[in-house]
Predict the 3D structure of the following.
Amino acid sequence: MSNPIETDVAVIGAGPIGLFAVFELGLLDLKCHLIDILDRPGGQCTELYPEKPIYDIPGLPIVTGQELTDRLLEQAKPFSPTFHLSQMASALTKLDDGRWKLTSDVGMEIIAPVVVIAAGGGSFVPKRPPIPGIESYEGKSVHYAVRKMDQFRGKNILIAGGGDSALDWTINLAPIAAKLTLVHHRDGFRAAQHSVNQMRELAAHGKINFEIASVKALHGEDGQLHAVTLANPEKKEWEHACDMLIPFFGLTIKLGPIADFGLNLTENLIAVDTAKFESTTPGIFAIGDINTYPGKLKLILSGFHEAALMAQSAFHIVKPNEKLRFQYTTSSSSLQKKLGVA
Amino acid sequence: MKIVATDRKGATRDVEGRDGWSVMEILRDAGFDIAAECGGACACATCHVYVTDGWYEKLSPPSDAEIDMLDMALAVEPNSRLSCQITCAPELDGIAITVAPE
């Protein structure tokens, strides 16, 4: 794909509201590129509660987060949105021709006259354990993900956590580590049973160590870890030598670089008007949980409404010389053609 | 009922609870810094609190779902709970909790 990409609308966030925005914009012939830090569309719906039922989506008396996402993807499909996943929108700049350039943390650039921020609470980022000074080790000897396994070859590794990521990486890194210890606060796991069995097997054969404890302090210098202090539930503390720590406590939501886009923020939310859902910066719209206005309700259905109104205004920015014809999908053959049903 | 709540900086104040509401909702509405990202669905562990000894034992025990979800909380202690899973009730009048670090 060429870089930069030129399109009609850049959408930040591929959650339910970003997906429905693709549909509403698509009906008006506006093409979208979406960017999301997660590795799949759906946002909180698929990351936090894929299996939990939602009961307040109009017309769907009961639907899970995953099902709702699947349906929105199907609904947006006729408009062939392009997804740029596993990357974070990191900078927004205005170009001389009036359009916007959105840059991601891996250098992808989208140029568009309209940017729609549908980022929910912001970016999902790994939870950082509250261990004093942990920041100074990050990137060198504390990692929140395993991107290149070779980086861990021959190391004395400590993995902290009790979910699927902690178990999976314990199993995968054990053969290449000099020594590997899994530390978790209890002798129980929020992970697939077969992974737990495999880990226990490795421990029984002395291939890994499993400690019921928590990491309390880090010891090292210049970003290089030498040891950690572990404490068990009975408050007994001891030092454990290691040169790599990989904490796996899932993800949390931080506003992230959107805070530095120069937008008008109120308590980490983007203030918008309720006719266009545009921020005070022309051409930058905000819909869904990330926006605020008098009477705002953080419901998925509110975001759908906001997406529809946003699209009407976005049209006039992208196609300033065209007249917008308001049509219904039930009766308009041109809309039905776009949807591939006519 | 009253909740004696301590924030991450160590400041303690009394907050008026409402029967049937979750402690998470009460704390969030009272301005405590609780993310509660999933909105009370026991799906994110960002409403983690420590329940002061003596009160911890008075609570109905955590469900399997809550115990599992606490694996995603940081700095878990034996008295850790998710505040979205504690329901205000008259017998909990005076319950003392501390918001866990994030």
User: Anything to note?
Assistant: Residues 22 and 84 of chain B are 5 Å apart (CA to CA).
